[in-house]
Each structure stands twice: as structure tokens, then as C-alpha cells.
Amino acid sequence: MKQNADNFPEENRTNRLPDRAGHQEQACESEESGIECRLEELGEIELVRVYNSRDEKYPHWKAMIERYHYLGQGTLYGKQMRYLVRSEKYGLIGAVSFSSPAWRLRAREEWIGWNEENRLRYLNRIVCNSRFLIAPWVKVKNLASWVLSKSVRQMERDWAEQNGVAPVLVETFVEKGRFLGTCYQAANFQHVGTTQGRGRQDAGNEYRLPVKDIYLYPLYSDARKRLCEGQAKEAVEVRGHCDWAEEEFGNANLGDLRLTIRLREMARDFYANPRANIPQACQSRARTKAAYRFLDNKASTMETILSAHYQSTVNRIKEEEVVLAVQDTTSLNYSLHPATENLGPISSRGEEVIGLMVHDTMAFNREGTPLGLMNVQCWARDKENYGKKHQRHKLPIEGKESNKWLVSFSSVAEIQKQCPKTVIVSVGDREADIYELFELAMEGTGNPKLLVRAEHNRSLFHEQERFWGYINSRPVSGIQRIRIPRKGNQPSREAELAIRYGAVELKAPSGKRAKGPLKVYAILAVEENAPESTTPLKWMLLTTIPVDTFEESVEKLEWYARRWGIEVYHKTLKSGCQIEQRQLGNADRIEACLAIDMVVAWRIYYLTKLGREVPDVPCTVFFEEAEWKALLAYKTQNPTPPSNPPSLREAVRMVASLGGFLGRKGDGEPGTKTLWLGIQRLDDMTAMWKVFVTELTPHSLSPP
């Protein structure tokens, strides 16, 4: 519906418009030669309000739009607002208008999380940017996005004054194939999906219109909350994003919008073919070359790529009461690619096994659903110093590899400040049993909590004995039965754990500059009556969270048990995304590619868990319309889609069946492996489905 600054018609015509005194005024000093300059050389840019059709400035606006906008003046629906764009130096250079929003828009409703009641109640808080024009002779870099931002800010004030309702969200539409929407992206509009190709008055879908990209601009950071005021919480929380790559990478600050666009495209390609190499995933020579250029760009670092995903993770964390920030370390083996530069040893065999080390922190809710990455550290070990353990004992914690635990905790602490209503608990295995980590966790009052499995049998501060013996001498507070999953050749079993707990004051290790004893809480869980062929479970946990009852001790054991989720995630990353098969020449490219793969692996794992946590919500919270319709057409052998989409659980199981999931009574829910294999097949099916329905049954592209 709008003229994009990147795609102006190739025509040069003189456009004389009446000025305020009624005289003829030329819109541009030299329309034939055009304007090519820097933004600041235009002088002051003013948005001139056009109040109505009787306004003396209305002929200016109408002439600009009719002559140069590809849709012409058209009809503006409902409430309306118009502006002329005037340059101090060159005169009129553009025109903008706003009007009432679309009556129904599926992608918009899903992004907001609306139910029907709130859609009717708050639709008047949305404004549509119905026309946007920068005159075709004006070629000024960044002008379009600058005018968009300025017009939205001015419209917000004027709209509230004129209509008595403060707008909360701006929507707009960009025709696919005609424009790229670059200026809207640069102005921080968010792409949320596409239209169905029908107009306001086409309820029967009798007239096919061009499909348009939908962009939204929230005028407030809590725009969704304002538009869902009074709505049931569960209806707001379960909402999907029509474009997950936009949600996770849309705000990545790479210094160049083209890099951000390329990042989103690569993420979509990698997700559609998680086991494919880069050329296979990109599916064309041009896209492959662009992907390699992206990985070579100095701005494409792991930290900048992941920064937007971190913020999306924070947004999901804010909706939880308790979040487990699980830390773990894994290694990436590139021994099969010895020519790769800047790698280091990853095993005791030294130079024979080379690669990179990765220490990441994943947020989980109490049900075990992964909410996203919170921190990622990646490095290559120094070949000169690796293996010299006796020297490391003399180094401060900052000079040791184990400092990774403190760095991660500090990052989680920063996130805790942004989520004051959420209790964040940093969880680590026995490698995290570091005295300095407990000291850091107990500094101040606003830090996250800490929960780690004990490795060292530390001395008690006021006693001669060690704390393991002290806790073991405590009476059993209760028996907790847990289900142990199958591991290797050992079948699953039910274990009975005897629970003991108590508060302890730990003495600082020798050589440490201690600030005093550390008061923590210890929980000991020992399996009783274990089968002879198995090793009994024995966990000793240390936490900064008070544990005063049996129920609280069991709760902390359950939280620690969620730690296995990050191991499943690492398996998904290596086996599902094949990150160790990337042949990229040097560690910098690998890190940039790894950042994308890590978010893709999280997305696959997230879908697996979400299908179990909220199985009855419609699959549209995660699958695009073409995907679920193609999936059902294949599974039912019926090209006509049903009136309602399947539930998320049904769709997840169908996708997993494409990857080998049988769905037998004893199989449980599908895992990440069958899901990532199924996703690859679904992507091919969706592409073919779109081809066939476009030619044979175009009505299937629209909702039934």
C-alpha cells in the first residue's frame, strides 16, 4: 500500500502545486536533475498537517499521492490523518497518511495475543500507516526511515488530540515482490507475517489481491500488555510469532541493516534444514555466497549475533516465577578439519584432538521448557599452557578457565536486575563447586540464587569435621521416589532417595583470601535398595536458598534434575545442527555460525517441550499456515484443509512421525532427534504444497 524509498518509478515529471497563498509552487527546485545529497543537507524537515479535504494544503497532498504513489489516493477508511513532508531547502518532498486499522488480521492478533473480546475493545488503539511516499526524484540515504520515525511520533500526539484515544500500535503493509520494506525495518518496525491476499470488503475471498508483508511498530514497550488489559493470563501467555527469526534476531545491532536481514534469512534456512551444510541450507549460489560474506564480516561476532536473542530470552523469563539458569561446558571437535585456523586442544591427548570450548547458560522454567540462552562463552585453549595443571593452582581465579562460571553468573545477575519479579537460580554440576562462585553469589542482596552439586568435602568453620560427614549424620527427613530414565543398557527404574539436609558454615580453602565463613544449605540424597547391577544415586547439593523443610529440599532436588536439559540441548546442537561438520576455515567464522546454530537448536528443543507443556493450544502458535496445511494434506491424503488447525501436540507428533517417531503406546512424547529430522521433510513438503495450491487450488491459501 505504500511507496518504498528503494523502489521509485522511473519517471521525471514536473509537479507544480498551489502554495499557501494559492499560487503555483514547484515541489522540487530541479525535479529533472533530482536531489542526491546527505540527509542534513536537506535542511530542517517539517511534517505539515493536512486537516481535511477543505484544508488549503489538501491539493498539495492529493497531487503528490495521485501522481507518484503506485496505489494513488485510494480510499482511507475510518479516522484519517495526513501530512506533507517539506524540506527547508527543496520544498515538498513527500506525503504520509494514517487511518483506521484492518478489521481482522491474523498475524497481528497472534502477535498481540488477543482474544475476540479484547480485539473489539482495543482495536481503536491501533493506527494504520496507509500511505507513505518520498518523491521519486529524492535520493537521500536514510531519509525514508527518518521521516517514518518522525511521522509516527507526531501522529501519536495528533491522533490522541483529534480522536481522544492514545494509539498503542502502528501497523502497515508492504507488497511482496514490489518492495523490500527496508525503510520500515530501519525505522524499527517488526515484520510479523503476511496477509491472505484479500481486501476489507472481500469476505468471500472472491478477488485475489497481492500478498503483503505485515509490519508493526509498538509505541510503548508494554504495548501487548496494554492491548490485552483485562484478558485472562493464559490467553496472553501462549502466543506465537509468525516469524521466529524476526523475534530472535530482528533487533541485532550489526551496524548495517543488510547484515541483520541476512542474519534472519540464514536463521530461517538453517532451521528449515538443520542437518544440512551451508550450501544445502541456502539452496542457491547467491544466498550461499551472501552467507559466507556474512560470516566473514568483522561485525558478525558471536556476541552481536546473540544479543537480540538474549533480550528475547529476558522477555520470556519475565513471565515466569522461577527460572533455572543452567550452566554447562561442552567441546566442539574439529579434528577432521585440521586446516582450520585458531583452534586448540580439547582433550588430554593434546594436539591430536583440536577444537573449541563452549560454556553456555540456558534458562529453563520449572517444567523444563527451555526459554533461551542467557550467556555463551567460546574460546580455544592455548596449546602452550594446556595440560600444566600444577601451574594453574598458583593463578588467581581470573586467570583460570574455571572463571567461566563467574562470568556466566555475572551475566545472569544483570538479567536478574531486569526481572525483579522472577527468582533466578544459577545451576551447575560438580565443576561449579568453586569457593569464589559462592562468594560472588552472596555479595549484595539482589543477586540470583545458587544451586550446585558438591565436589569437594570442605571443612566446617567451627568444627573439626567435614560437612559431608556432618550432613550424613543428620536424621533422614523423608523418602522421595523418582523415576530414573533408561541409560545405555540399563533399563529405567524407580529409585527411593533418603533425604537429609541442614545449614552449614564452610571454611575457606587454604590459600584463599576469605571474607569469612560461607553459610549455605546442604541437601544429601542417597538411593536405598538399589539393584545390584547399578550404582546407587548419591547427590550432595549446596545452595544459597534457605532449606528448612523436607518439601523445600525435594523442590531443590527437582530443580537440579532439570540440569540434564542442557545436555539434551548440546546433543541437539551437535547431532541435530551438525555444528562440528562446518568447514569454515577459521575459528571466527565458526563462532559466528555457531551463534546462529545455537538459537536454531534452542528453537527445535523449545518446540519439543512446548508441545508437552501446552499441548492443547492451536498449532498456529508455532507453525505457519502453509506448514500445517501441507502437513495435514500429506498425513490425511486430503488437499482440502479442515476448518480448524490441529492442536500443537498433534502437529508436533505428526512432524516427528516424518522423522521416524512411531507414536506407540509406550513411546511417550517425541524427542528432539525425530523432530529435527521431521522439520527438514516438512520444509520440502511446504514448498511443494505452495506450488500446487497456487496453480490448482488457490482457495487453500486462505483460511477456510
Characteristic terms for this protein:
19 strands; disordered C terminus; 22 helices; 704 residues; 10-stranded mixed beta sheet; alpha+beta; elongated; 7-stranded mixed beta sheet
Task: Write a structural description.
- This protein has 704 residues and is of the alpha+beta class.
- Strands 10, 11, 12, 13, 14, 15, 16, 17, 18 and 19 form a 10-stranded mixed β-sheet that branches. A 7-stranded mixed β-sheet has the order 3-4-5-6-7-9-8, with helices on both faces.
- Strand 11 and strand 12 form a beta hairpin.
- Helix 9 (257-272) packs across helix 19 and helix 20 crosses helix 22.
- The radius of gyration is 30 Å and the shape is elongated.
* Average pLDDT taken over every residue: 80
Sheet of most strands: 10 strands, mixed
Strand percentage: 15-25%
Low-confidence stretches: 1-30, 200-207, 233-242, 697-704
Helical amount: 25-40%
User: How many β-strand stretches?
Assistant: 19
Terminal residue distance: 25 Å
Query: Structural class of the secondary structure composition?
Result: alpha+beta
Anisotropy-based shape: elongated
What is Rg? 30 Å
How many H/I helical runs? 22
Detail the topology: elements first, then pairings.
Blueprint: E1 16-18, E2 24-26, E3 45-50, H1 58-68, E4 80-87, E5 91-99, H2 106-112, H3 116-122, E6 126-134, H4 143-163, E7 169-175, H5 182-186, E8 190-194, E9 212-218, H6 223-227, H7 233-237, H8 244-249, H9 257-272, H10 278-282, H11 285-296, H12 302-317, E10 322-333, E11 344-345, E12 354-365, E13 370-379, H13 389-392, H14 403-418, E14 423-428, H15 435-441, E15 449-453, H16 467-472, E16 478-484, E17 493-506, E18 518-528, E19 538-543, H17 550-561, H18 564-576, H19 587-613, H20 625-636, H21 648-658, H22 672-695
Parallel strand pairs: 6-7, 10-14, 14-15
Antiparallel strand pairs: 1-2, 3-4, 4-5, 5-6, 7-9, 8-9, 10-12, 11-12, 12-13, 15-19, 16-17, 17-18, 18-19
